[in-house]
Amino acid sequence: MKHIHTSTARGKMFVPLFNSKTMQAAMMTLRPGQISGELGNEHPKAEQWLFVIAGSGAALGKKSRVVIRTGSLLFIRKGEVHQIKNTGRQKLVTLNLYAPPAYTPEGEVRRAVKSL
Q: pTM score, two decimals?
């Protein structure tokens, strides 16, 4: 069992919290109007589960748009191009789970996923 303190991630745009060999947890915080990055964002070898802790926004894909808000759970397939945008007036805070890990501990996208 491992207890992870998420308070250190608050206020930072994207912070990997913990990696195991098969999963990764990260937090993302977007200010009102802020987007997660280019629409070309993808995780070629990892599925992503995004849970909205607070706020509201939109998940954008090549041909889709999904409204997300506190309590929403979003599944993003391996290799699916996506972008998250804060469309609300408060911070959008999400907990993101990746299987297998998609980012290095520094927050860089893993192109060749390795076990940690």
A: 0.87
